[in-house]
Amino acid sequence: MGIMNHDVFKAASGLADGLGLSGDGACGALVGGAMVISYLFGRERKDFEDIFKPMKSYLLARKL
User: Is the overall model pTM greater than 0.90, yes or no?
Assistant: First the structure.
C-alpha cells in the first residue's frame, strides 16, 4: 500500500491481542484495518462537521 507512518505504528502498539495483550476486546488487526481504511477514505479535520463525508470509510470498515 505504500503507507508508512512511524507515529501511527507506535500509537497502535497497544492494540495487540484484543487491547494490551488482554485477549479481551476488539482484535488489534480488526481495529488496525479500520484505521487504514479511515486513513485512506476518512474525513479530514476541516470536514469534521460533515458526518457523511467519510461514508465510504464507514461502509468499508463495516465489511471487515
Answer: no
